[in-house]
Amino acid sequence: MEEKLLGKIRPIVSDLLGEEVKVELEHPGQDEHGDYSTNVAMAVFGKTKNGKRETNWTSPMELAEEIKVRLEGREGFGELVEKIEVAPPGFINFWLSKQVLVGELEEAVQSDYGRHDWGRGRKVVVDYSGPNIAKPFGIGHLRSTIVGQAVCNLYSYLGWKTIGDNHIGDWGTQFGRLLYQITSKGLDPKQLTIDELEKLYVEFNTEAQENLELNEEARRWFKKLEDGDSEARAIWEVLREISFREYERIYDLLDVHIENAYGESSYESMLGEVIGECLEKKVAREDQGALIIEYPDGMTPGILRKSDGASTYLTRDLATIKFRLEKWNPDLVIYEVGAEQSLHFQQVFAAAELLGWGSKGQFYHLKHGLYLSPSGKKFSTRRGDTVHLEEVLEEAVERAGKLAASGPATGSSPEKTEQAGPRFSGGSPTRVTRAPDLGLARVVGVGAVKYFDLSHHPASDIVFDWEKIMALEGNSAPYIQYTYARTQSVLRKATSDSLTRDSKNELQKEEEDILRTFYKFPEVLRQAAENFSPNLLANFLFDLAQKYNAFYNRHRILPVEAERYNRHRILGGTLDNRRQTLEKDLTSDAPVPNVFRLVLTQGVGSILKTGLSLLGIEAPEKM
């Protein structure tokens, strides 16, 4: 929609000024100021005052008025825009026509609404999740996992060839600690659980505080692993197998599917080549037995190889870049990793640039913040331990089940109650359903945790709050899921005998509010992808759900009196037939059938389902 409007405005402004001028549109902060607004008159007038162009206009307002007059006189412009207003100090505000809004409604009911070819012919690699093997999946990895999956979904929907890669942490000195623990205690690694492996790791760190020689033992064992020692390799392989089984369970629960899992160990054979190229190109130099990279801008030097010959994260991440460029040749590589790794990725990207690998801007670190407790401290157990993600998800499902069981005895599900006007204050849905349903509890509980994260900007720290996560009122997944289920309930009840004629043919405010939200959906998808911000999509869905509930509570969709209408023709007919029906409903002096409100409901449901799916959240048909 934005491009359609810009296509009308740019030629007018360019003709008026005698040269090409950049025109930008934005949505006004308040709905009463229109659907779009541009400050082009102010931007242009500022340049003319500096003597770059002679002008006859005395103010941005005067220039804006002339642009308005010329736009209003352009043939066909009225079909797109029904009203233009100039507002101080020189804004031009536009209101889209009802014809355009109805056309957009007809697009909105399609299952692929908002799909775009923005990324056609381009590839993006998204590096996300990346848990460390031999440790349970911690709450800290949830953000990378679900934000990364949402980014993948958005880019795929917008035409990019998307390649997900799970950069598993399966290499490094920490494995030397586990190898020492297992061998020194004579344990059979095949009999160990992932929780027991974590316990061994913690025990080592505690003992090493008293016995510093243990750290040397750990380094020795990791060096044996790097050198291909058969015993070290065999134990390490078992640890990987135990961990992968555990992670697959978590990914299944989260409905996350990462097509590749090239762990750090995958690049071991490339490390010598990377180091050799760094030395050959004089990017690295030796310093007290270690190899370091010094950066021309004064950034903290990076360690390429330790003095004992062991590799580092920098070495392995450079090898990863080399591998990805050679294997996939992507246009963009996104690293969804915690903000605490900012310096590390600055070093990695700068080193790649010094080596001549890739191009500037080809690599992007999508930082995420921390989960915090209500006291503002890092989210952890009472003992100060890492919170296991599975425990959080289990509690979410349990809470969702209790929420279902505690619903009102009379039932307020759309499956049980005929529409009879407002049923709750503020346009908010009520409880899910009285009978507990573990399948539904999983969908609602897991969806609630995911949405709570995704509704925040990735870089922000999040205070973990169960009340907000599971809220049935407010910006939460249960609220949006319930709203979607409500739309489907209305449509299931929309038999030919339930369609009636309304005595009013003009758009009601709540109906128009929804219509003026639909067309923004494709724009929000693009903005969410370009800015690596799934929260933009999440908040759009919440806004749409609020507007639908306000409409639902104020207006009757399925009245008692009935007329003969063919439901299939209305909801399943061709676009042209439905568009003609809707346009007639909105423009005719005759009574208006409630076809319009049903298609409006269908459009809301379609967008909510698509949007939730892109966030990796299920939309239940019934609640």
From TrEMBL:
Keywords on record: Aminoacyl-tRNA synthetase, ATP-binding, Cytoplasm, Ligase, Nucleotide-binding, Protein biosynthesis
Tell me where in this chain the DALR anticodon binding domain is found. Answer: 480-623
**Motif 'HIGH' region in this chain:** 131-141
The Arginyl tRNA synthetase N-terminal domain is annotated at 3-96
Going by the record, the broad EC class of this enzyme is ligase
The reactions it catalyses are: tRNA(Arg) + L-arginine + ATP = L-arginyl-tRNA(Arg) + AMP + diphosphate
Q: In which compartments does the protein localize?
A: Cytoplasm
Molecular function GO labels: arginine-tRNA ligase activity; ATP binding
Any one Gene Ontology cellular component term annotated for this protein = cytoplasm
Family matches, as InterPro entries: Arg-tRNA-ligase, Arg-tRNA-synth_N, Arg-tRNA-synth_N_sf, ArgRS_core, DALR_anticod-bd, Rossmann-like_a/b/a_fold, tRNAsynth_Ia_anticodon-bd
Could you describe the subunit structure of this protein? Monomer.
Which NCBIfam families does the UniProt entry name for this protein? argS
Task: Name it.
Answer: Arginine--tRNA ligase
Q: Which organism is it from?
A: Candidatus Blackburnbacteria bacterium RIFCSPHIGHO2_02_FULL_44_20
List the taxonomic lineage.
Answer: Bacteria, Candidatus Blackburniibacteriota
Q: Supply the gene name.
A: argS
